[in-house]
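Example record

Each entry pairs one chain with its bound ligand, phosphoric acid mono(formamide)ester.
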Amino acid sequence: MKKLTSVSDVKNLQEIIKKALQIKENPLSETEKGKGKTIGLVFLNSSLRTRLSSQIAAQNLGLNVLTLNAAQEAWNLEFADGAVMNGDTVEHIKDAIEVLNQYCDIIAVRCFAGMKVKEDDVNESILSQFEQHAKVPVISLESATRHPLQSLADCITIIENWDEERKPKVVLTWAPHIKPIAHAVGNSFAEWMQEMDVELVIANPEGYDLDKNFTKEVKVIHDQDEALKDADFIYVKNWSSFNDYAAMPEVKENWMLTNEKLANTNQAKVMHCLPVRRNVELSDEVMDGENSIIYQQAKNRIFSAQAVFSEILDELN
Ligand code: CP
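Structure tokens for the complex follow.
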């Protein structure tokens, strides 16, 4: 693997899932692989899981880890090409990336959607600058439109929890939230699930359809009860409107997943990428119930990251 910003960078999804599961069995099997090499983890936005799981994964491979919480610790960055920097910004992103090139063998970056200018987010205005200026492999730690390391962990978690011959029915369901949330997790999950041997259905209220470039031919249902019927896995996630970008059209029905709604499923396992707003996005009873595999999913973030870092090191060594 030369980089990871989307599922299209993965040569063989089944192989990398298998590798991640082997790593889970023996996380310290490749402690020499990253020796003498450095990964830079650059966070332009907050993180708990991505930051810590990436650090553990890198350390398990013997990599040196530099973590930069850029929003808090670095100079105020300028992203606009040709900007006259006579305002608040102190360092251009191009210069910052050129410097990271001097220090790092791999650059991993988190750069969320700005949720203001649709075109900027759809075109990955920040990640594209890393891809353009980095001279080392780039890994997305969640960008404006995708969250690939999360999606790989999601695939691993589904494989671990499915041993029947038939395809599982996987429902990606919208959940309520108090503010406009980006589309990256939903887009990415939809994209990766289309590469898996599953029956994927998306449930969201009218006005909340995800970008067709990600959902393609996947069935979108606007009635949550209908979508959840006989589900084997339910992936809970909020996102704002894509068409009316970042708006939150009114939703009259209650879309928060409860035990009553779970009763309509095939004892579905419940997933969420976290962080979750309890009793807004997901009820306590489901979050803490026996159907939840959410903490297992969070643990698998380590093995997802480690499998990807390991494959990228194969290219560098
Ligand atoms: N799921 C996820 O990416 O968590 P963090 O935002 O805490 O990294």
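Residues 47-50, 142, 150, 273-275 surround phosphoric acid mono(formamide)ester (CB under 6 Å).
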